Amino acid sequence: MPTPAASLPNHRVTESVLSTPGLHDQAIGGAGTAPARSWFLFAVGSLVLAGMLSLMLVVGRLPFLGWLFTDPLFFKRALVVHVDLSIVVWFQAGMLAFLGLALGPRLHRGVSAAALGLAATGVAGLLVGALMPGALPVLSNYVPVIDHPVFFAGLACWFAGVGLFCSLALVTPSRTDAKALNADTVIALRASAAANLVAILTFIGAWWTTPDAAPSVFYELVFWGGGHVLQAANVATMLALWLFLLNRWTGRAVLSPTAATALVAALVLPQIVMPPLAFEGTTVTSYFSMATHLMRWTIFPVVSVVLGTSVVHVWRLRAALNWRDYRFVGLAGSAALTVLGFILGAFIRSSSTLVPGHYHCAIGAVTIALMTAAYDFCTAVAPKDSAVEQPRRARLQLLLFGGGQAVFGLGFALAGAYGLGRKQYGVEQHVRSLGEYFGLSVMGLGGIVAVAGGIFFLAVMVRRIGAWHHPFTPASQSLHEQRT
User: Fold this and answer.
1) Count of alpha carbons within 13 Å of 248, Cβ hemisphere only?
2) Which range among 45-54, 147-156, 191-200, 236-245 shows the weakest confidence by mean pLDDT?
3) Mean pLDDT throughout 59-63?
4) What is the structure's pLDDT at 450?
5) 352 pairs with which residues across the strands?
6) Is the model more confident about 294 or about 444?
7) Is there a contact between 368 and 91 (Cβ–Cβ < 8 Å)?
8) Which residue has the higher pLDDT, 5 or 205?
9) What digits encode the pLDDT tens for the residues 352-370?
10) pLDDT exceeds cutoff 80 at 424
11) 31-178 in CATH: which number?
């Protein structure tokens, strides 16, 4: 197995060093990485836009500034676009970027191009639809919407592009060269693709069978079941990224292909009951209860097993590991947010800000895993003759985002513990107690720090993407940057 970089003397830059996962020699530039790069640009771009919108949302929640904003619909429109970009486009595009990396030149170019074209049209439709006069924001759970045909055309195009690429990825064999992703990562990525397809089928069934109703009721019914399946898909993505990062950090795979298959099957296979339930009718009680039970009883056990196995894996190799590696920071932050999300979720008893406190920790865990893996992705898809700097400030960026997201979720949870309602902004908020004021202030502080971490991430990504086209930098310099 490759030797961890931390255990190598400074003067040794041998062939074994250059083959160490995550270092300069991992660049695999060429035509085969074009789909992966395109999905990655979708992912980073969506996070940029979502981060900008989140700053406005944080300001609108601060109790001493809420009086400045007398139009709550402004925040709700911003919230719709923010959520769709940050937990739909960002997660799906990020997953497809790594799946594209895993499959490489084996992907059918025409189908890949069609999927990317649909996705680009979809994102444009989401943004343009939000600007349509009279468009009504509907804060349905999981996939909030703007009630306008242009917006829905964009959403349909996005899901069509994602579904097409997921279908292609499931029938395309993995690359078998020396620079292929580890098997357990690819298995989890394919599971995420399958879960995304199940979610899209559930959305279609729900749209077909949901009776006419007020927009708030109609869209809640439409997106409830598929939204729950999307959470399983996001968790599968997070697990794939954990396995990917652990392999790059420790030099060894965490799970055998058999174990990885069994675990992700336990997470994804139960979700296939949701499309039939959606086509049966979204007003049937089992449609709601089954989605809730699946989230409760499939995610926690599988994540707990993978997390426990990963901890044991790291403990056994602890003497040879570089604990200053940015991958450790990202993995620890993602795991901590996951556990915090589990804890906050266990305390939910009503529709208060404890709910967004829980899910911001949960989606933050996926986001920080994807952010951490993005550094390795930039190295992996860089052309062979490009300069690839190892990230020197990745640890700081990940600490800012992870810490800010944790404080953000805890602030929401504290305000919710005092009964503050969710989905309220500006003058809509009725902050009555000192606990609510304190919780929202903590939330605001954490949100600002998390946004700063997101902006930092953007700056680093722009530089690293730009480095794909710069002159070659010697591998010895890249190794030095990795250590510093």
Assistant:
1) 31
2) 45-54
3) 62
4) 87
5) 421
6) 294
7) no
8) 205
9) 778 888 888 999 999 999 9
10) no
11) 1.20.120
Q: Locate tokens 């439709």: which residue?
A: 125
CA distances, 250 to each of 19, 143, 183 (Å): 13, 37, 15
The residues near 178 (Cβ < 8 Å, ≥ 6 apart) are 19
Domain layout of the chain by residue ranges? 31-178
Tokens, residue 198: 């199940």
> Which tokens sit at 105?
């030149």
